[in-house]
Design goal:
Elements: E1 15-22, H1 32-36, E2 42-44, E3 56-58, H2 69-73, E4 79-87, H3 97-102
Antiparallel strand pairs: 1-4, 2-3
Length: 105
């Protein structure tokens, strides 16, 4: 059986997690980080910074997959990501053969 056809071993897969740090005083509230986050881990906060802008805030640290898009797209260098280690994904489950035939998820 080819390698790509073998069943997925959930215990061997580790997903990288990140811890997002936002430097509020540098942010101008453009929202690029929020718009392009693939996991939706950021949102605009209701508080304002020293410049009068609304910086983003982290909704949940567990949502961040350490892709780095927020830090890469931030024009003010107000975001950096700390590696939070790797964790086993809880949402991965094996797909049964009958589910594939029926087209269900």
């Amino acid at each position: 059986m080819p390698l790509w056809r073998q069943p997925l071993d959930k215990d061997r897969i580790l997903i990288s997690r990140g811890i997002v740090h936002i430097i509020d005083d540098r942010c101008k509230g453009c929202g690029f980080c929020i718009e392009f986050c693939p996991q939706g881990a950021l949102e605009l906060s209701s508080r304002t910074n020293a410049k009068g802008y609304h910086p983003p805030q982290v909704i949940s640290d567990g949502k961040c997959v350490n892709c780095g898009l927020c830090a890469l797209l931030c024009p003010d260098f107000a975001i950096y990501i700390e590696d939070g280690g790797k964790q086993n994904p809880d949402h991965i489950r094996p797909i049964q053969r009958d589910e594939v035939r029926n087209g269900s998820r």
